[in-house]
Write a structure and sequence with these properties.
The protein is α/β, with parallel strands linked by helices and about 240 residues long. The chain is built from 7 helices and 6 strands; from the N terminus they run βααβαβαβααββα. The structure holds 3-methylbut-3-enyl trihydrogen diphosphate (2 copies) and magnesium ion (MG).
Length: about 240
């Protein structure tokens, strides 16, 4: 067995290219989204078996509401089904599930499904799986700043007490470490408002593979690329020679 020291603890994925994948096959975009949801289910088990402890996926951004209503409705339907079917699978796989993003804009039944999934899986001790729904990093930072400002105006803290750690603790990701590796599929090389604060020292990996085709072999390639990186965090640290 290979040593597991170079396995990233937290992998975040911008799952992109569902629409292009479907279009290339002459199929409707929404079919691509369905296949994309299946790929998420599969990669979760693969990630767990590789020893990854935290997996975070970007499923719906605060900007994705700008898509045609029919596509938004289809995406919400897929998310609804995904959340509901996840309880049983997560219990079987010992996965703890949680959702980040602004929930009040989601329909009441989706909010209920999120709460049920989070509550049911809260005690699971295996991989922590975080799904970003109606998530935008700028929105998340605004909400954090509002909370901290409130504490200042209540007199609970003063402005000088504000630290990086305090900001991190007010983000939706307060209970998980920053990502070690961020993967984006289908050729785009941008963050699209995902985890801006949290990715300060994250290693980025891009692939031309569209999300529905992203499988175990592709995740292994990303993890291997990560293993070859020299993370320096602003210092001069170099990895020991093999
Ligand atoms: C990613 O696939 C899924 C979501 C953003 C919801 P896209 O729907 O962005 O697929 P492309 O980029 O149009 O191919
Ligand atoms: C980012 O993908 C959002 C999600 C994967 C949910 P997009 O496809 O929406 O991003 P842009 O529009 O290409 O930047
Ligand atoms: Mg896209």
């Amino acid at each position: 067995m290979e040593e597991n020291t170079k396995i990233p603890q937290h992998v975040a994925i911008i799952l992109d290219g569902n629409g292009r994948w479907a279009k290339a096959k002459g199929l409707p975009r929404n079919y691509g989204h369905k296949q994309g949801a299946k790929a998420v289910e599969d990669i979760l088990v693969v990630a767990r078996d590789m020893g990854i402890k935290y997996l975070t996926v970007y499923a719906f951004s605060t900007e994705n509401w700008n898509r045609p209503e029919t596509e938004v409705t289809a995406l919400m339907m897929i998310l609804r089904q995904y959340l509901k079917s996840s309880i049983k699978k997560s219990m079987k796989n010992n996965v703890r599930c949680q959702v980040i993003g602004e929930r009040s804009k989601l329909s009441a039944d989706i909010q209920d499904a999120i709460n049920e999934l989070e509550t049911a899986t809260a005690g699971n001790t295996g991989l922590t799986f975080t799904i970003a729904i109606n998530y935008g990093s700028r929105d998340e930072i605004v909400r954090a700043v509002r909370e901290i400002s409130q504490e200042c105006s209540n007199g609970k803290i003063s402005a000088a007490d504000i630290t990086e750690q305090m900001i991190s603790e007010h983000l939706d990701t307060s209970n998980i470490p920053d990502p070690d590796l961020l993967i984006r599929t289908c050729g785009e090389q941008r963050l699209s408002n995902f985890l801006l604060w949290q990715c300060a020292y994250t290693e980025f990996y891009y692939t031309d593979i569209a999300w529905p085709d992203f499988d175990e072999a592709e995740l292994q390639k990303a993890v291997d690329a990560y293993a070859g990186r020299n993370r320096k965090f602003g210092g001069l640290k170099t990895e020991p020679e093999e």
